[in-house]
Design goal:
- This protein has about 100 residues and is of the alpha+beta class.
- It has a domain at about 25-95: Lipocalin (Beta Barrel), CATH 2.40.128.
- It is about 15% helix and about 30% strand.
- The protein has one helix and five strands.
- It has one helix at about 5-20; strands at about 35, 45-50, 55-60, 70-75, 90-95.
- The chain has a five-stranded antiparallel β-sheet with strand order 1-2-3-4-5, with no helix packed on it.
- The relative contact order is 0.14.
- Residues about 1-5 and about 10-20 have low confidence and may be disordered.
Length: about 100
Amino acid sequence: MMCMSMRQYAACVALLGSCVSLAQAAPTCNNPVGEWKNQLGSTLTITAVQTSGQLLGTYISPSGTTGGVYPLVGWFANPVAGSTASSKLPAITFFGAVG
């Protein structure tokens, strides 16, 4: 019969816990919360979407701003099911001051 010491058991639980915490869902157009990166290495992190549609987050550019973190505010409009709008795509807009 296999026996596992308490130390080995704790190490396994810690390892599994860290794997679960790393398995976060990637952001999508329908749920934009998360990290978005472009081909130039800039990172847009959306931290929250309020029920009003307001976005909150940060922007980091590796070029020209020496990696400074800038707050941003924006809006997220996602058409509801059954909408008669000509476009069914979500729209995201944001602004922030860089520099």
